[in-house]
Amino acid sequence: MAAGHVEIERKFEVGSDFRLPDLGGLPGVAAVGEPVEHLLEAVYHDTPDLRLVRNRVTLRRRSGGTDAGWHLKLPAVDGARRELHAPLGAATDRPPAEVLDPVAGLVRGAATGPVATLRTRRVVTPLLGTDGRVLAEVADDVVTGTVPAGPGDEGGTVLGWREVEVELVDGDEPLLAAVGARLEAAGARISALPSKVGRVLAGRLAALQPAARPADGAASAGDAASAALADQFAALQQADLAVRTGRPDGVHDLRVATRRLRAVLTAFRTALDPDRTRPVREELRWVARELSRVRDEEVALATLRDLVAAQPPELVLGPVAARLQQAALRAEQEGAAAARAVLEGDRYLGLLDTLAELLADPPLTEGAGAPADAVLRDALRRRGRRLRRRLAALDRAADADRGPALHAVRRAARQVRYTAELAEPLLGRRAGKLVRRAKKVQGALGERQDTVLTREHCRRIGLAAAAAGENAWTYGRLHGLEEARARRAEDRFAELVPALTAALRAVRRS
Predict the structure, then answer these.
(1) Among 246, 259, 296, residue whose Cα is nearest residue 77
(2) Residue 363: helix, strand or coil by DSSP?
(3) The predicted structure's pLDDT at residue 215
(4) Is 105 buried (19+), middle (13-18) or exposed (0-12) by CB count in 10 A?
(5) Which residues pair with 165 in a beta bridge?
(6) Half-sphere exposure of 366 toward its Cβ, with a 13 Å CA cutoff?
(7) pTM of the complete model beyond 0.70
(8) How far is CA 107 from the centre of its chain?
(9) Contacts of 119 (CB under 8 A, 6+ apart)
């Protein structure tokens, strides 16, 4: 992966006559450095249908200034954007693999090329701390943006504007807020656009946006299915990006997105051609299954490490923490390799293409014209019946079959929850209550299922420790603690069932 850093900045729109205010006296600022001028040129690359910019990703080749090179800016997380860098190199028309690989799930093999050029006269004013460190930089930018002519256009688009960026270097959020307040007091306005290239490409982006969705009450099943597919495909692509760039919870988010997509395809099965959606559902199931091994191992070992850290030292006999750390590192490496193998494979990339085709040309049936609320109410009743059958089977299950029966209830509760989330905007309070209660049941049974893996790790690692001549008593203790946690989770589930079944009855009667 390319080298990179986390970028925390704020953008402000200013007029041509704006004057930068005095920036002295701000929290922690000992001095305001001398302004330095740079002349920058950035050529932005994307697919012809702007797949990157539409997913809040920008890819550019910048020359001039102190950070010349290829830059890949990822979507903001908690107000910060991660930026990956690669050297300029000799090629100007094709980005290097270091910055293309992380967005392979967005680009999906499409050709990339220049879509806009920005030329900027930048005047940077550094804000310095008492030790001379740069706390933040205030950049006053005069920008000219050019979009090349497209097919059928007589000429390209040229825009000019001025803006001010404040980027933290070694400073903190209070300083960023204070600089922003000083700028706003001088007449600056917080920018409504997240990026310069987004401003230049606004016209093309607007032309690529889907048609406005109808009001909830007027939605047909086809409209609602298309909107839900678009939302979850976007979530899948963001999770794909998170996995490829090593962000925490990326695998979890990707699994959730695949499950929600399956829920959409199932809930709207009367509005979407099953011959086209059934194979997609199976491929989504395959992705979730392959990634579950990655996620489950990481969660189980993290739980055990936290549990060991909470034990009194006299009850931790032998190198237990070291063995668990070694197992966690091995699982992390194997998991990352397994996730990459899935995401880089032709089968997964083909699934992404198929999903994009479904969005571009939804396989609507005659039932697509039915009211969305009626279709979702029927889907929710079907899912509710399945969950009630699983609960009844659990009541009849022998002790030896209770584990699989609980797992089946958990899966059915998850499907009810996802379907109820789709229905909540249309069906209202009763669906919302069902979402909350199904989520609680899913959580309790999920915790119980987690202990199945932690206990197996205790058994396996304990055997390896004993074979190496170590005292394995602590692994038995951990196993017992996880058994107790499983019982507590099952008891909590039993307490939650009456409220869940009441919520199911309420939806069935609606």
Answers:
(1) 246
(2) coil
(3) 45
(4) buried
(5) 11, 139
(6) 0
(7) yes
(8) 17
(9) 39, 40, 41, 143, 144, 145, 146
